[in-house]
Design brief:
The complex is a heterotrimer.
Chain A lengths: L3 E10 L2 E11 L4 E5 L6 H8 L7 E6 L2 E2 L5 H7 L1 E3 L12 H12 L6 H15 L14 H14 L4 E5 L7 H16 L3 E5 L3 H7 L2 E6 L2 E6 L1 H6 L1 H6 L10
Parallel strand pairs in A: 3-8, 3-9, 6-7, 7-8
Antiparallel strand pairs in A: 1-2, 1-4, 4-5, 9-10
Helix pairs in contact in A: 3-4, 3-5, 4-5
Chain B lengths: L1 H30 L7 H17 L4 H30 L3 H27 L12 E4 L2 E4 H23 L1 H18 L4 H26 L7 H15 L4 H21 L7 H16 L8
Antiparallel strand pairs in B: 1-2
Chain C lengths: L2 H4 L2 H23 L2 H27 L6 H15 L5 H23 L4 H27 L4 E2 L5 H24 L1 H11 L1 H6 L4 H27 L1 E2 L1 H4 L3 H13 L5 H19 L6 H15 L3 H14 L9
Antiparallel strand pairs in C: 1-2
Helix pairs in contact in C: 3-7, 3-8, 3-10, 3-12, 3-13, 4-5, 4-10, 4-12, 5-10, 7-8, 7-10, 12-13, 12-15, 13-15
Classes of the chains: A alpha/beta, B mainly alpha, C mainly alpha.
Chain lengths: ~240, ~290, ~325
């Protein structure tokens, strides 16, 4: 049984089919990469999984439970958490409260207030933000805000974590740190799907990659297979990043 | 059959004016994202300025030439000063819309109070083109026909402006997606202020046209504002043609309700608009032609 | 968090001053004239409405203009049941009826964008007014109701009690995880839903909760007015005043709406009876616009900013 499985998932906005009959799956413990040119439907697919938007047709199952048609908070409590392409932290709340909130509401075990605070502090340490937990989240740098968003997602005790362009806007050092963070998350037993444009990261971390273009899945395989795939190279025409730069 | 004709024609005539008001609201809320509760107050000012000028011998239709630019400039300046400041200081779009709404209510109070101070609270009216035409069995007041004609004509003129001129296209771009339009080189601050100004001008002119046909009071504004909001929702947010069509629809509905209502209770029309609003929000918040 | 902390100077000021003021207000009626008692009664009413309003609108950012509707329901509860039931029960009915009504309204409209919610709530007051006028005119053929009067002292103390309860509930809610959830909804509703908050339910319940206090206040105040009709009961100004007072005072904490109400109500009272009474709405509107433009965090927010500038500390979050 796959941890997450999508069958012929489709959604359209007006006349534009953003995601078209996409089949996909993730197995427990995997790190799955989701790549494709801008507008290919990657974030839309995340939105479908996290139930931010409803599917037009198709089915998504998580641990054998049909999650199509559920609401986002239900999906989160079932064990799927995510980050966003444009960071959506709660700027006027404290760093600690951002994470505590997720622990209080997203954790299916419903921890007590003090337990939630403990869990939150532990996660802040994990991402390296434990120094100033009561400062407002909007004062953090972009890299730290992304770390905060990840800690917040992890506080919901997910089995599956969706990372949407975690590395966008980060410099080389920050990208290396982020890659390390992702590996550590996987070591905690959490399965990961990551949307990324930074090819270095995708190629080195992912066990498997799915490629989307114009809403359709055009390729799927190991990083090596994808790097050698003629279809993928054509789609990314001009990108020297595939071969790793 | 006679009644039906009266309702449809009467509805279309008042609908023409409703369309003008609603297009103005669509520009202000659909594009500039300001739910302008004071919209009706610009209408009231247009109506009363026309009335006052008319008392000094100025033909009401001529006074439109004065009112249009005056209200336009007022709206333009209002946006550039008040609403731009609010937009700059807001954390996110939701906060901006909320604050803009409250500020608009503030102007509703300010403008209405000024109106009452200048013109008092008693209803006013004057006679202009008062004769009735008989058109295919229906009775039509001449002034209503002229007013509707003006309103529709202005609507068509504005549509041509939107399709052909550079600034018109900029407005259409902003109506679809303001931030992107800004990224594409459109001077967004200027364009949004332009929209707000046009919206105010449409309200002012509509006020003039209304004063030609009906009695006016300094408290008339809010009713028309609410009507415009319903029409904009019906036509679809962000769709200026939608508001245009919606105005006629609501004109017919309102006239029909007025015909059916035999009690002395006059608020039924307003209540019917509100019921339409509720149904829209429940069933199809996107409206007829919204994105 | 031991007893030692309870006795620090800061805690003494934070709790002591309001407590002293409350006690002074409480014994007030014994010593002073009915004019001032009426004044403070109305001030308490506005304070209750503003704090109740802030519970929902101050946190989630959904600006409700339905306050007058819930207040009006409370007024009519008094009119309809005041003769047959004890005062206390009537107040409860007013609160409960408002809760139910708010729940229905919330369930319908809170899944829409904030701006539509605001317009819907605004129209609601006007609709309630029209429906009642039509009902009274055509079906019942009467004009308004007479309400059983209660003694001024009874009204005062009930209202004071309601105000205290509203404050306590507001405080407890804010410190709870639901208070945090409400703030997160105001920050980013989408993200809030994604971390496990049942946003729709939280919004509807909180909206309904705030309505309870408004309804109860209406039920109490009706007995002071003695005669009510739709004009009096569903006055749109009762929807605007709490919004303005809370915005003016600042919505970040409990003090804001209270301070805003007090200042505003006394200014309002001066304006409505003085030489400037014809300019009342003009000034009201101008203050509203000015506050939104230059003081969006209200007076309390302004004071907090000044405090920070003086002490040189880093900016403080609204929680913790």
């Amino acid at each position: 049984m796959h941890l997450l499985q999508g069958e012929k998932v489709t959604v359209a906005f007006g006349g534009l089919t953003a995601v078209s009959e996409v089949d996909f799956h993730v197995d427990k413990g995997e790190i799955l990469g989701l790549i494709g040119p801008n507008g290919a439907g990657k974030t839309t697919l995340f939105n479908l999984i996290s139930a931010a938007i409803p599917v037009k047709s198709g089915k998504i199952t998580f641990k054998d439970t049909n999650i199509t048609g559920k609401k986002p908070y239900q999906v989160t409590r079932l064990g799927i958490a995510r980050t966003f392409q444009t960071v959506k932290i709660f700027g006027n709340l404290s760093v600690l409260d951002n994470v505590r909130l997720a622990a209080l509401f997203g954790d299916p075990k419903r921890p007590s207030a003090s337990q939630a605070t403990k869990d939150a502090m532990e996660l802040l340490e994990f991402v390296g933000l434990q120094k100033d937990p009561n400062s407002p989240a909007r004062d953090l740098t972009l890299a730290n805000q992304k770390r905060l968003e990840m800690a917040r997602a992890l506080a919901a005790k997910p089995e599956l974590l969706l990372l949407d362009e975690l590395m966008a806007g980060l410099n080389h050092t920050e990208v290396a740190e982020a890659m390390d963070d992702i590996r550590q998350v996987r070591d905690r037993g959490i399965t990961i799907i990551m949307i990324e444009h930074v090819m270095k990261a995708i190629m080195s971390i992912c066990d498997r990659i799915v490629v989307l273009n114009y809403g359709k899945k055009i390729a799927e395989g190991t990083p090596q297979e994808i790097a050698n795939s003629k279809t993928v190279i054509e789609v990314y025409l001009g990108e020297e990043c595939i071969t790793g730069s | 059959m006679q009644d039906f004709l009266n309702i449809v024609i009467g509805g279309l005539l008042i609908g023409g004016i409703y369309s003008l008001i609603s297009m103005g609201m669509s520009l202000q809320y659909g594009v500039a994202k300001v739910m302008n509760i004071a919209h009706g107050e610009f209408l009231m000012f247009g109506a009363f300025i026309t009335f006052t000028l008319q008392e000094h011998g100025v033909n009401p239709l001529v006074s439109i030439i004065i009112i249009a630019p005056v209200t336009f400039i007022a709206g333009f300046i209002l946006y550039r000063t008040v609403f731009t400041t609010i937009r700059v200081r807001a954390d996110n779009q939701g906060v901006f819309e909320g604050n803009a709404l409250l500020a608009a209510f503030g102007f509703y109070f300010i403008l209405q109070n000024i109106g009452v101070l200048i013109w008092k609270s008693t209803p006013k009216s004057y006679a202009f083109l008062n004769s009735i035409w008989k058109l295919g069995g229906a009775d039509i007041f001449q002034n209503r026909l002229v007013a509707a004609g003006f309103a529709i004509g202005l609507g068509i003129l504005f549509y041509i402006y939107l399709s052909t001129t550079r600034s018109g296209k900029a407005i259409r771009a902003a109506a679809q997606d303001a931030p992107t339009a800004g990224l594409m080189g459109v001077n967004i601050n200027f364009v949004l202020a332009l929209c707000f100004g046009f919206g105010a001008a449409m309200a002012g002119v509509a006020g003039s046209l209304i004063s030609i046909c009906y009695g006016i009071t300094t408290t008339m504004g809010l009713g028309y504002t609410l009507l415009a909001i319903v029409v904009v929702t019906l036509g679809g947010l962000g769709s200026i043609p939608g508001s245009f069509i919606g105005g006629f629809i609501l004109g017919i509905i309102g006239t029909a309700v007025g015909y059916i209502n035999h009690s002395s209770y006059t608020g039924l029309t307003v209540a019917s608009y509100y019921v339409i609003f509720i149904i829209l929000l429940l069933v199809r918040p996107k409206g007829l032609m919204g994105k | 968090m031991g007893l030692k902390k309870l006795f620090t100077a800061q805690a003494a000021i934070k709790w002591g001053i309001p407590l002293i003021i409350l006690i002074l207000v409480g014994v007030f009626p014994v010593f002073h004239s009915t004019y001032y008692q009426t004044l403070i009664t109305f001030a308490l009413m506005y304070m209750t409405l503003s704090v109740a309003w802030t519970i929902f609108s101050g946190t989630t950012g959904y600006i409700s203009l339905a306050s007058a509707a819930f207040y009006g329901i409370g007024i009519y509860a008094s009119a309809l049941f005041g003769e047959k039931m004890p005062f206390f029960l009537v107040i409860l009915i007013g609160g409960a009826a408002s809760f139910i009504f708010a729940f229905i309204i919330g369930a319908i409209t809170l899944r829409l964008r904030g701006i539509f919610f605001s317009m819907f709530t605004f129209g609601l007051v006007l609709l309630a007014y029209q429906v009642l006028i039509w009902y009274e005119l055509t079906i019942k053929n009467i004009r308004g109701y007479f309400v059983v009067i209660q003694s001024d002292n009874a009204i005062f103390y009930y209202l004071l009690g309601l105000f205290i309860i509203t404050i306590i509930v507001s405080y407890v809610l804010k410190r709870s995880k639901y208070g945090l959830a409400l703030s997160s909804i105001g920050e980013n509703e989408n993200a809030s839903e994604h971390i496990g908050v049942n946003v729709t339910l939280v919004k509807i319940l909180t909206f309904s909760l705030s309505a309870v206090f408004m309804g109860a206040a209406g039920a109490i105040m009706a007995t002071k007015l003695s005669y009510i009709d739709p004009n009096i009961a569903f006055d749109p100004m009762i929807s605007f005043s709490p919004a303005l007072m809370a915005t003016f005072g600042g919505m970040g904490n409990i003090y804001g709406p209270v301070i805003g109400s007090v200042i505003f109500y006394f200014i309002q009272d001066r304006l409505q009876t003085g030489p400037l009474q014809n300019y009342y709405k003009l000034i009201f509107g101008a203050v509203l616009v000015g506050t939104i433009m230059y003081m969006p965090s209200g007076i309390v927010g302004l004071i907090q900013k000044l405090q920070k500038r003086i002490s040189g500390a880093k900016s403080a979050p609204i929680t913790g």
